[in-house]
UniProtKB/TrEMBL annotation:
Keywords: Lyase. It is an enzyme of class 4 (lyase). PANTHER family: ASPARTATEAMMONIA/ARGININOSUCCINATE/ADENYLOSUCCINATE LYASE, FUMARATE HYDRATASE, MITOCHONDRIAL. This is fumarate hydratase. Residues 24-357 form the Fumarate lyase N-terminal domain. Its EC number is 4.2.1.2. The keyword Lyase applies. Belongs to the class-II fumarase/aspartase family. Fumarase subfamily.
Length: 478
């Protein structure tokens, strides 16, 4: 009996064909390239829905590694005609065409080794190669999913290889563009705001002055360090498990297979992948995934701090700090006319929270390597990829729709500066901490200014106050 995922839209059933695996015969939709093992997984793991499908980047990575293996396997006896058909079929996987057409229906929540998705890939590539060669779909002739597409491989080394390929490509193509764009925009703002002196805040309370540019420079450095943290994880991420086969010994491979495959994968991706120096570690643990997500988690922490600062500094427009003016993108309330909210800030902080949650799942997954195999692979890579996409897309959206349009509300910044009591700190070297504190506390209690209170208490003259209390002289050593 076919499940709902094997049926066409409406009530009309598609034509079925018979395919076999080692456990028996099953009906397979005739318009799909997968085979019996894929159908068996659909039947056994009806969990979630289309939103829980194996991530697109993982399937693309599978296509890349299968193409590389087919090319290398020609050197070890694979018929060139079959290898060429396999590689052509792999190109259809790599392009995303076959994913979009529904030939990769399996969900994340399957075996922890990703075996069913490895076999889903093998079946799709084998059947597509059979089509190319003019054979009968599902016949496993002349291309067999295990004997030819999976030659010198195991799910235990292909799936972790796909994990590393997918994450490395997404870091390069999706995370870094968004992160770098936002960092560069904030760097521009730091330079633009360099001469604007404002009051600082510690413990959410008034503190001594700094420039708005200096405040933004902290954000720039946080993101720069975040980029550097990601880059520091790449050497371990670039190690590939392919060649370890079942438990790391390399059973059923040939000398040189692993290294040659890594080189081919590097050629296909433009990323300097290498064969992992210890295949036992590469199969049994995924510390590299935890490490990568640790960098992503730190970036999420940075973004939470940066974006919360920005929305607090922009609070208002009349009754908040209102030191920054943010772009007004959409109405903010269904009941309060004219209200505009910091929605880009809210979006990015929610993303940061989700990434932090993903990190916990990834951490637990990484700790579940049992003897020679980690069995949380699909969940781990799905969370890492989701965090990469969320941060990358979120930074792009925030950059375009908020950061580039941030303006300083100089009138409000100057007004708040004049009202601050912490400018009294400049008097410490001249009259001492205790007298300065007396001026500040009295001014706060009576609602007066520092200058008027200092004169009233007989501690300073107007000339002395103007000489010693200058915000521009309070920005650090000259």
């Amino acid at each position: 009996m076919a499940c709902s995922q094997c049926m066409s839209s409406g009530n009309k059933a598609v034509r079925m064909r018979k395919e076999k695996d080692t456990m028996g015969e099953l009906d397979v939709p005739d318009d799909k390239l997968y085979g019996a093992q894929t159908v068996r997984s659909i039947m056994n793991f009806p969990i979630g829905g289309i939103e829980e499908r194996m991530p697109y980047p993982v399937i693309i990575a599978m296509g890349i590694l299968k193409k590389a293996a087919a090319k290398v396997n020609v050197e070890y006896g694979l018929d060139k005609k079959l290898a060429d058909a396999i590689m052509q079929a792999c190109d259809d996987v790599i392009s995303g065409k076959l994913y979009r057409e529904g030939h990769f229906p399996l969900v994340i929540w399957q075996t922890g080794s990703g075996t069913q998705s490895n076999m889903n890939t093998n079946e799709v590539i084998a059947n597509r190669a059979i089509q190319i060669l003019g054979g009968k779909l599902g016949s496993k002739d002349p291309v067999h999913p295990n004997d030819h597409v999976n030659k010198s491989q195991s799910s235990n080394d292909t799936y972790p290889t796909a994990m590393h390929i997918a994450v490395a490509m997404e870091l390069r193509d999706r995370l870094m563009p968004g992160l770098v764009a936002l960092r560069d925009t904030l760097d521009g703002k730091a330079k633009e705001f360099d001469k604007i002196i404002k009051i600082g805040r510690t413990h959410l309370m008034d503190a001594v002055p700094l420039t708005l540019g200096q405040e933004f420079s902290a954000y720039v450095t946080q993101l720069t360090f975040g980029i550097e943290r990601v880059c520091s994880t790449l050497p371990r991420l670039h190690y590939l498990a392919l060649g370890g086969t079942a438990v790391g010994t390399g059973l059923n491979t040939r000398i040189g297979f692993a290294e040659k495959c890594a080189k081919e994968i590097s050629n296909l991706t433009g990323i300097p992948f290498e064969s992992a120096p210890n295949k036992f570690e590469a199969l049994a643990s995924h510390d590299a995934m935890v490490e990568v997500h640790g960098a992503l988690n730190t970036i999420a922490v940075s973004l939470m701090k940066i974006v919360n600062d920005i929305r607090l500094l922009a609070s208002g427009p009349r009754c908040g700090l209102a030191e920054l003016l943010l772009p007004e993108n959409e109405p903010g309330s269904s009941i309060m006319p004219g209200k505009v909210n910091p929605t880009q800030c809210e979006s990015l902080t929610m993303i940061a929270a989700q990434v932090m949650g993903n990190h916990m799942a990834c951490t637990i997954g990484g700790s579940n390597g049992h003897f020679e195999l980690n069995v949380f692979k699909p969940m781990m890579v799905a969370n890492v990829l989701r965090s990469i996409r969320l941060i990358g897309d979120g930074c792009q959206a925030f950059n375009k729709n908020c950061a580039v349009g941030i303006k300083a509300n100089t009138a409000q910044i100057e007004k708040i500066m004049k009202e601050s009591l912490m400018l009294v700190t400049a008097l410490n070297p001249h009259i001492g901490y205790d007298k300065a504190a007396l001026i500040a506390k009295t001014a706060h209690k009576e609602g007066g200014t520092l200058k008027d209170t200092a004169i009233k208490l007989g501690i300073l003259t107007a000339e002395q106050f103007d000489q010693w209390v200058k915000p521009e002289d309070m920005l650090g050593p000259k």
